[in-house]
Design brief:
Radius of gyration: 22 Å
Low-confidence stretches: none
Number of strands: 0
Order of helices and strands: HHHHHHHHHHHHHHHHHHHH
Helix content: over 70%
Length: 433
């Protein structure tokens, strides 16, 4: 089937470009539309009336509980447009973050329901992983050699005399071609999940051991503590699926401890510990915030933004974090941050608590479907895909508890990848109905 082969290439290309700022957002939008067209073309190829067959498939999907959760989230986001001080801006956010991503998710889900088991999706992610690392680490190597001749320089800092460790740690903030270290760290959660699951299953062990180690080192170089902690939690959860994961997790825990020890010995802990924890343990959050550090700043922001949400629980500021500056200027001044640094709290601010609740319900339904499929399916590759997807969900949403990274390329990454296991699991649910 030509559509199947074409879809694999589009899926791969979109995966590769998500962490990079190449040509702005246009390539991501175009590839998402191509996925929608290709999927619907493939799933209606056997029918004489393609439109009627597509409508029938959608009607069948709308009977599933996941469709109602997605619909709840979609409607909550749409209604919030009318609450926005800048409806045009919120409408643009809605079209790119919800309308386009949801259409892509549903079309790829329906495709995966019929043909998903025929494609090795994790191998596609692995190839994308290699391409990402070659490009990302290639840029970093060039940065380490000479900042003056750096291809995509976007910083005023002079780091010629800095140590190589400092140069590595500030690389992500010094290039205009990377979509920010926050989104890079979120992207790496998928790569780590795939490589670790492959390794635990004893598939291509040398290749995936190298990929996993390089992915973890790249993740550490982003200095995103929330992502690093979430990856550790996710790796600790994999023994629920494979007993062999216990041994690997123990080994990587030892390596992690050695890495932390090396940071202390080399006096580079300032890149990861930037706050006064004694003040925080004493409950002096405001004072600790004034002393510096992102942890007390986040805690203080969570408390203040939550209080503001509870004042108007069902009335958001409208989609898009720019609206918060206009609607909540006093909170911004008090907290010293312009957004909530938590995906669920951010969504509650923008759409009301109903939006955050809808997202939570969607995640729970997805996780339940994948878990049921993992328990009931006898195919090793399908079980591996379900385990990887659940592992990715733990890492992805764990990271988003410390940042509001469920937007832009990161939200596209989630809907793109999760459509595949959800579609395969959805097919299994349909068989048992």
């Amino acid at each position: 089937m030509h559509a199947e082969g074409f879809l694999k290439y589009i899926f791969f290309i979109l995966l590769v470009i998500i962490p990079f700022h190449i040509g702005g957002t246009a390539p991501r939008y175009v590839l998402s539309v191509l996925i929608i067209i290709t999927c619907f073309s493939a799933i209606t190829s056997s029918g004489k009336n393609k439109f009627s067959e597509a409508c029938a498939l959608l009607c069948e999907f709308f009977r599933h509980p996941l469709s109602w959760a997605l619909g709840f989230l979609f409607v909550s986001a749409f209604i919030s447009i009318f609450m926005s001080p800048d409806p045009k801006y919120s409408l643009r956010v809605f079209c790119s973050e919800y309308l386009l991503n949801f259409c892509m998710f549903i079309s790829l889900l329906l495709f995966s329901e019929k043909y998903g088991r025929k494609i090795d999706w994790l191998e596609i992610v692995t190839v994308a992983n290699v391409v990402f690392l070659v490009f990302y680490l290639g840029l970093m190597s060039q940065w380490l050699v000479s900042q003056d001749e750096f291809w995509f320089l976007d910083t005023d800092r002079n780091v010629e005399s800095a140590s190589i460790v400092k140069k590595i740690f500030i690389f992500g903030k010094s290039t205009s071609i990377i979509n920010g270290i926050k989104h890079t760290s979120i992207y790496l959660t998928l790569l780590v999940a795939v490589a670790f699951t492959y390794l635990v299953k004893h598939q291509h062990r040398i290749r995936n051991l190298i990929l996993l180690l390089v992915n973890l080192c790249t993740l550490i170089s982003t200095r995103r503590r929330g992502a690093i902690l979430s990856v550790i939690v996710g790796m600790a959860a994999l023994p629920l699926f494979y007993n062999s994961a216990k041994r690997y997790f123990a080994i990587f825990s030892l390596l992690f401890c050695l890495t932390v020890s090396a940071l202390f010995i080399s006096d580079n802990t300032r890149y990861f510990i930037r706050e006064d924890w004694n003040l925080m343990f004493q409950g002096e959050i405001r004072k600790a915030k004034d002393m510096g550090g992102s942890v007390p700043l986040r805690i203080y922001a969570y408390l203040n933004f939550t209080k503001e949400v509870l004042k108007h629980p069902f009335t958001g500021t409208g989609l898009g974090k720019k609206n918060i500056k206009q609607v909540m200027p006093n909170i911004i001044k008090e907290t010293e941050v312009v957004h909530a640094h938590n995906a669920f709290l951010e969504l509650a601010i923008e759409t009301g608590i109903q939006g955050a609740l809808a997202l939570l319900i969607t995640i729970i339904i997805q996780a339940r479907m994948l878990w049921t499929c993992w328990k009931n399916d006898d195919h090793s590759e399908i079980k591996g895909l379900m385990a990887t997807s659940l592992l990715f969900m733990i890492m992805f949403w764990g990271t988003n508890m410390f940042t509001d990274g469920f937007r832009h390329g990161s939200s596209t990454l989630y809907w793109l990848f999760m459509a595949v296991p959800t579609g395969i699991a959805y097919a299994a649910v349909q068989k048992n109905v």
